Amino acid sequence: MKERKDLTNRLQNGKISRRDFIKLMLATGASATAIGGVLAACAPEPAATAVATSAATEAVAAATEAVAKPLSVEGKLTMKLRAAFMPQGNEILKVIVEDWGQKNNIPVEVDITSMNDLQTIAATAAETGAGPDIIEINQGSAHLFAEKLADVSDVCDDLGSRYGGFYTAAEEACKVNGAWLSVPRFFAPHAISYRTDHFATIGASVPKTWEELYEIGKALVDAGLPPIAFPLGHAVGDGNDFNYSVLWSHGASDVASDGKTVTIDSVETRAAIEYMQRLFSVMPADTLSYDDASNNRAFLASAISATNNASTIWGAARNQSTKYKTKDADGKEVEKNLHEVTDHFVYPEGPAGRVTYAEFMSSAVFSYSKNVDAAKALLTYLNEREQLTPWVNPNLGFVFPTLMGVKDDLLMPWNTTPKLAPFKDYAETSHLPGFPSTNFRSGTDAYAKWVVVDMFASVCGGLASVDDAIATAKALLEESYKA
Amino acid sequence: MQSSLRIRKITKGIVVTIGLLFFIVILLFPFYWMFITSIKPDSELYDTAQPPMQLLKPTLEHYVYLIENTRFLLWLKNSALVATVSTAVSIVIGTLAAYSLARLRFRGSRTLGLTIFITYLVPTTLIFLPLAYVIRSLGLFDKQIALMITYPTFLIPFCTWLLMGYFKGIPRELEESAMVDGATRLQALRMIILPIMLPGIVSAALFAFTLSWNEFVYALTLAQTEAIKTLPTGIVSQLVLADVYFWGSLMAAALLGSVPIAILYSFFLEYYVKGMTAGAVKG
Q1: pTM beyond 0.90, yes or no
Q2: Which residues of B touch A128 (CB under 8 A)?
Q3: Domain A2-189+359-429 classified CATH 3.90.1150.10?
Q4: Contact call for B241 and A87, based on CB within 8 A
Q5: CATH T-level assignment (fold) for domain B61-277
Q6: Looking at the complex, does the CB of residue B128 fall below 8 Å from at least one CB of chain A?
Q7: How far apart are CA B63 and CA A272, in angstroms?
Q8: CA torsion, ordered A47, A48, A54, A55, to nearest 10 deg
């Protein structure tokens, strides 16, 4: 147990040589004996060890089979991946890919870049038929690029059968007309980041419902403490995540299950908007212009007490030793570590329970690629337990595997770090735009047009009445779902 | 009378100085902001209670991070190479095109000049996909030369349009005299017109270099491999990780990245001004 904790701490603090760690983790795939040894050293529960050992043994068998069939590529295998917020996590991912290339004698070029760049690169690849062999795409992009992507059903079926299947949202994003067109890679799970000291000052506990969250927001304002703040601007991740989650958890949706009938004009939508108006009354006005970085910046500056986000606020505060000012027992101003008073709680429930938006990435192989087989082999390798763990762990909860069977693995960050525990069940309640239908192509189109976010924002910002906002949203949604 | 002249002189001096100071502050403020952000520790960057212009504990940690943890120097070199080649190509072609359009009489020259200008106005976001398609067809996708070829598509119209104005400002009589004396058209251009045009060419080159240096969309789509990235795309890819922005290092990169441009301007500006004040038809 102690060894496991030490290892995790050293890794998350970047104090372990990444190559050493990779070697250690890759060694787990070298032989069943080695796997048993390492996991036994790490795991307190024999049952968990047995399950892990069994799964890993299967992985070794599959890997051995893969080695038997030599891979080859034309030129080199190129890939563009989304950067996670922890530099060491990105570095480890590079090392894993390069190690695979060396083992298989395949030149691999991996570039890890920002999400915004990836969208342009993927669009260019789809339109021109030129670009990297593998590109990480977000949300339901597989539906938009469907005609341009290689079928990767064999990879997904293999991984799914070995690791307990994929989460529903992963299927929603990657399965098009029954075929997997992109290999699910990770969720960037969201929760509410909050200041434990401010909540304690007003005597608030973790809210279970959106209504309770509003009450906390009001109490914070009344107490003169920094307010809660949720994005109502064009924040690709946080904005969509928050607004869709509020909409769905109020029982509303933009489309019916037939994927054609627009259902935004409903009693439930009105209830969601009414709630959002009240919530906005206890939030700063600049939330209307929040982008993805705005709430991070405000929280790190101690200007707000709670916001929805991935684990990046807490992680950045921890990495950069961000301070906040407070007073000690003698009334003297002192600086303390912000991450110590930052924690997370799961998205609250609405009248329809907890339904959340999935921030999601998958790895697509474009059909222009001349290296489809090698790309598939690499994607299989990357999503195996032995490679997932060393990559997921140092990312401090920012990446969450899409395979259901690895969530409980002992070295996953939500199992080693209590503050990350609220991220553990995010994927189970998450969906993609287009939910509750299966028309994710149109849902993705509507999401790209910011229909839901703008509907809420226009009312909160006083630009439109509830009726007008719904009418505008309805017209735009009908355009999307008609197409 | 003398004191009135003196007062007028002093007043003029004060007005000019205030005007200049105003513009200096406006123009230099972004650089000051970049600089102060780049040497502030994160604790001060996120402290909203601290006045933004105030700096308590300067640090070089953001510069160290930039140099040690990113490929900043390589991207700087790539930017310099791409910008230099594209500028050189564009200036040569742009000068010849501008001369033709300004001097030679042929049907449609006016329309052609206007079309070239309109080409410059087409936003890159509109044509990057067709251009990417062309580059792929040429087998140059994800190669540095792709940028050297595509940048002139907006630099040549720009240079042509700019230089046409300069050509029109030079009396035809100068080259006609040279041609009467036995020079060919090209000789007249090279030996008579171009030396006079030098200030204009320097201006066009400076602007073209700056446009290439700052270009983002083509660089993002056509040069995707880390080793051939230019500065604008490189720093964004490694200093914006998810929703975490490395503000200090981003500002350090922006500041260091603008140094070559600033040096170029300061070096050529003097030459440019000298050229402007020593025109061929100066009385």
Answers
A1: no
A2: 129, 132-133, 136, 141
A3: no
A4: yes
A5: MetI-like fold (1.10.3720)
A6: yes
A7: 47
A8: 150
